Amino acid sequence: MAFITLNQKKLKENYGKLDALFKSKQIDWAVVSKLLCGNKKYLEAVIELGVTQICDSRVTNLKAIKAINPNIETVFIKPPAKRSINGVVEFADISFNTELQTIRLLSAAAVRMGKIHKVVIMIELGELREGVMREHLVDFYSDIFKLPGIEVIGIGTNLTCMYGVLPNHDKLIQLCIYKQLIETKFDRKIPYVSGGASVTIPLIENGLLPAGVNHFRVGETLYLGTDVYNNTTFAEMHNDVFKLYAEVIEVNEKPMVPMGELGHNLSGEVLQFDQNNAQESTHRAIVDVGLLDIEADHFKPVDPDMQIVGSSSDMTVIDLGMNNKGVKTGDLIEFKMDYMGILRIMHSKYIDKKFEFEVKPYEA
After folding, report:
1. Were both Cys, which of 71, 200, 249, 299 would link to 341 (CB 3.0–4.6 Å)?
2. What is the pTM of this model?
């Protein structure tokens, strides 16, 4: 059976690097936990790092975090759906918002529950995902400040996640100016300028982060050591905190080119093959993970002599070449994954979740 592992030592080292960087610049930061899909044992591992604030985009995951440690400050990091308002107020101390009508519902729910719900208002800076348009900002804040049960604690923005718009000094300066404008206009203090995510970290190292940006939400760089801005890995950070292991369920020498008329496959593709290889053969291994769990573009074997050549719903085919390593049925093949690959695997109920030290040899 396929399974994913988390290396706690490497995770702790990645966390330490980030925590030292942010502390050196007096920046608060929160861990984004949505990659973990609410898995209790992995959430506990993250909380054990000393995390005080965790962000997620699912109410059920925030509920799981509060069950582990109610003192963790939880942040719901997408505009709440109306049908989830009560859960957001109950399990999220803070939520990111862009709609006045939604914040009114949060206000009513907070009053009913006898709570003060904190909000960060997200501003549109070019990514065209969530965010209040800048020309509406003053009127928006004017209405929010009147609502009972609501405390406005921040202004923020999201970049890169959908269209890849990169953060830069000018965009983040704009965010800081809007914060100053609101504070001056309404004589209110806005503590957070939440302008940072994994992609923004290189701006700190290059001295390009405006001093007013004082809050980051970080997921990918913590788990994969990724320099998202430059699509590389940060020096002295680990990109293999997570690993995927899949068991070999068949090994055979087979032709390199399918035999017969080709139609659409499971993914709706009609594939083309080099007929010059029609007489050639190669060793192929089938492993017990497929498109239901992860797409082939988002994982690859650690061994450079192995290559994914196809997937169906529950199986993936690996080209072993001459199979010089002697791969056999029952062996485990190790894979590296990118962020979306890990997210898909973590969301799959068919994939076991382990810590790396729990991996044991195959036993018949």
Report:
1. 299
2. 0.92
